[in-house]
Specification:
Length: 140
Amino acid sequence: MLKPTEKPFTHSIRVAWADCDPANIAYTGRIPYWALESMDAWFESITGLDWYALNVDRGIGTPFVHMSIDFRAPVTPRFALICEVHMTRLGTTSIAHRVVGRQDGVLCFEGEFVSVFVEAKTLKSRKPPEDLIKLFQALS
């Protein structure tokens, strides 16, 4: 098991008017979308593969088995949404992340996300490939 990463990866999101509801804040469903987008960007920055390439080119899926999000302040189009991604655990077949979203320094949301590595065609759980394990281990 790995220790959490010390230095967070950050991903900037442009929140658009179309992302908002009649209350002029982001639709609730956009928050997990942006968290997943940020984790995908983190994954690509670490491995050189986004989740699509991992699935299609290497035959490995990463479906989520757990998500929890606490909302702290509204997200609006006024400022960029900066999402910090921290890998918190690498298990035998799973990987966990913490994502924290801020706008203009204000904490907007924080969430925990766990996905498992699977064979893309059969959806049977599997260990991540050794090359990816080495890249993840280098983070802690």
